[in-house]
Write a structure and sequence with these properties.
heterodimer, A: 125 residues, mainly alpha, two-stranded antiparallel sheet, 6 helices, globular, B: alpha/beta, Hypothetical Protein Ychn, Chain: A, 5-stranded parallel β-sheet
Chain lengths: 125, 160
């Protein structure tokens, strides 16, 4: 029996991996949207401002014109394939780091990226 | 476990060394916590104080001696200029990774809401005055004060 265990573990691994990559469709503001397991949109073309507003509401945020400026900046960077980091946000000229944390108090870069409909930033800085 | 469900709420990071790699490790951990919505406080003690010493923080080095991961014989590592060379190489690599310099990193931490504390005992030992230190430092604490600030649920402490 013992020799079966590694195989079982392997299967379990495969299963977890599959789950990690799993994407699902959900309805946001009346529109079907593809999201990953953490709720980040996987197809930016599906994004619109109504969806952004709804995603912000889910993060307990009401978007002000300042929020929108930051979101538009993040989307422009994403379109230009520039990786996002907190340092770049600070140097953007759009918002400084202190205000960024005030606008999106809980995990700012992740939250703002989610609302903007772009992938979760992979930076450690 | 309580209603917290083991959720991490605050990281208390003690930095006791001033080699560049240790300083960056501590800074990245503190910044990373804030980016995840976790509070963070740093306590600079012993040689770690150099990382917040206005003049010295610009001149931190990697250690080339006594560090097997440098893959360099100790005698070579001890040659004049070796530390400066290794430091220059490391800084170049870090710049490519978009890692800020020490002073800029402190500004980022501060703007992100990380609390920065200097250790009173170490300051007395090195004869540092608060004027010698990074100007946005939150203050000088005793170890007891730091423990007080570490109370509550979901708080983890890290010694570097």
């Amino acid at each position: 029996m013992i020799h079966l265990i590694p195989g079982n573990l392997f299967q379990l691994n495969l299963h977890t991996r599959k789950n990690k990559k799993a994407m699902s469709e959900r309805i946001i503001a009346g529109a079907p949207v593809n999201v990953n397991e953490e709720g980040f949109m996987t197809d930016f073309r599906q994004w619109n401002q109504t969806i952004g507003t709804e995603l912000a509401r889910e993060a307990d945020l009401t978007l002000s014109p300042r929020h929108w400026q930051v979101i538009e900046y993040l989307q422009t960077e994403y379109r230009n394939e520039v990786p996002l980091s907190i340092r770049k946000i600070g140097k953007s000229g759009v918002v400084d780091i202190k205000e960024f944390y005030q606008l999106f108090p809980n995990a700012p870069l992740k939250t703002a990226a989610k609302i903007a409909g772009i992938p979760k930033p992979a930076s450690c800085i | 476990m309580s209603d917290q469900n083991g959720k991490l709420k605050k990281m208390m990071i003690i930095l006791s060394k001033a080699t560049l790699d240790n300083v960056y490790a501590a800074f990245v951990l503190a910044n990373g916590a804030r980016m995840e919505g976790i509070d963070a406080e740093m306590f600079f003690t012993f040689f770690g104080l150099e990382a917040v010493h206005k003049e010295r923080l610009e001149h931190l080095h990697v250690a080339t001696v006594g560090n097997p991961a440098m893959h360099m014989p100790t005698m070579i590592g001890g040659l004049p200029g070796m530390e400066a060379f290794a430091t220059r190489m490391m800084k170049k690599e870090m710049e490519q990774l978009d890692m800020p310099e020490v002073l800029e990193f402190l500004d980022i931490l501060k703007a992100s809401g990380v609390k920065l504390w200097a250790c009173k005992l170490a300051m007395d030992m090195f004869h540092f005055k608060q004027d010698d230190l990074y100007e946005d430092l939150d203050g000088v604490l005793t170890v007891g004060d730091f423990y007080q600030r570490s109370s509550g649920e979901g708080v983890q402490m890290l010694f570097i």
